[in-house]
Amino acid sequence: MPADFITNLYVFVLAGFVGFEVIRRVSPLLHTPLMSLTNALDAIVVVAAIVIAGRHETKLATILGAVAVAASFSNVVGGFLITDRMLRMFKLSRSKKQ
After folding, report:
1. Looking at residue 25, what is its pLDDT?
2. Spatial distance between the Cα atoms of 77 and 97, rounded to a whole number of angstroms
3. Is pTM beyond 0.90 here?
4. Is 40 exposed, middle or buried (0-12, 13-18, 19+ CB in 10 A)?
5. Lowest mean pLDDT among 26-30, 66-70, 78-82
6. How many angstroms separate the CA atoms of 30 and 40, rounded?
7. pLDDT tens-digit series, residues 1-36
8. How far is residue 73 from each of residues 80, 85, 86, 94, 97, measured CA to CA in Å?
């Protein structure tokens, strides 16, 4: 087995484990299971895109990797912004009841 394959497999498994652990700790009130799964897959895509873009094997691979990093990063940032907005909505509804 080539060393690159072992390295890629290691990165994939590690990213999958980290994504699973992060999702497991998210409160069910904040995300539906579908959103959590999508965010985990996007985290794996970010790691893979960084690896692909960082190799500089061909110009096309580097460009596609950079585009994948940008797209995935925007999705991750959007998820954080939506979560922040949801948390603020919960705080407002609790303060009005009291």
Report:
1. 74
2. 31
3. no
4. buried
5. 26-30
6. 15
7. 677 888 888 888 888 888 778 767 766 665 555 565
8. 11, 18, 20, 32, 37
- Per-residue pLDDT, averaged over 59-65, amounts to 84
Residue 91 identity? K
Q: Which of 87, 44, 37, 39 is nearest to 68 (CA)?
A: 44
Question: Which amino acid type is present at position 62?
Answer: T
CA distance 61 to 67: 10
3-state secondary structure the chain: CCHHHHHHHHHHHHHHHHHHHHHHCCCCCCCCHHHHHHHHHHHHHHHHHHHHHHHCCCHHHHHHHHHHHHHHHHHHHHHHHHHHHHHHHHHHHHHHHC
Residue 65 amino acid letter: G
Helix axes 59-97, 33-55, angle to 10 degrees: 150
